Each structure stands twice: as structure tokens, then as C-alpha cells.
Fold this protein.
Amino acid sequence: MVNFFRMENGMEQFNDVRNRFAELIGLRLVEWRDGIAVMELEIKPQLHNRAKVLHGGVISTMIDTAGGYAGLYCETPGRILKALTLSLTTTFLGQGIDGILQVRGQRVGGGKTVFMSTAKVTNERGETIAIGQGTYRHGGPF
């Protein structure tokens, strides 16, 4: 498993890809390769809204973060790619109540400056909680 605090499983070269907001909510990067980013989040009460389900903003953050990382993979040590979200669309299809959610982001197109990704959030039973798509601009520092 790879997370933002410590890199494991031979992925130490990605030590500088920290996303402090993702760390704050507990979002962990578990798979990262060209065009794909998979992340997981354990639902905790402090992430609930007043209805006692996972806040939609957390789900949107999962989609945004996985979609962005899907377009930023680079195997070259020390070369950290960054992007800025230009557009993000989230469609909620269910609720996150407890357990672990997984989001899978996949780059689906783009060029040198802009890329697009889709993402799908599922619960431990494989049920889809949300889907989304984002448009991102390469560059940095921001």
C-alpha cells in the first residue's frame, strides 16, 4: 500500500507527491501507474454530514484527487508532475455510511497542457457510490 505519509512496496521514489488535504481526510493512494490511480478512504464519523453519512464534498475530493493523479504518473525519480483542476463533475448514486470506499481514476484523453479523467467510487460490496469526470491543466508550481 502507498500512502502520503510513508511510501511502501518499493515506491519510495514517490515520496514527494504529498497531498496534505488528502492526508487530512485519510485518503490513501494504493495503486498508481500510467493512466490509473486507485485510492481508498476509511469512513469515519468526523467525515459525516448532519445526516450521519459521508459528506458529498469528501466524495468529490476523492474523485478530483484520483482523477488528477491518474494523469500525473511519472517513473522518473525527482520529476514531480502537478496539475490544476479546471472542471469537475460529480454524480452521486449512493451514500457512504461506513467501511472503506475505493476510487479508481483513469486518464481518458488530453494532450500536453490539458488532460481528462473519469473516476468511480465504490464501497466494499462493489456498489457504486458516485462517478465523476474532471479536466486538469498540467503545469506548476501553483
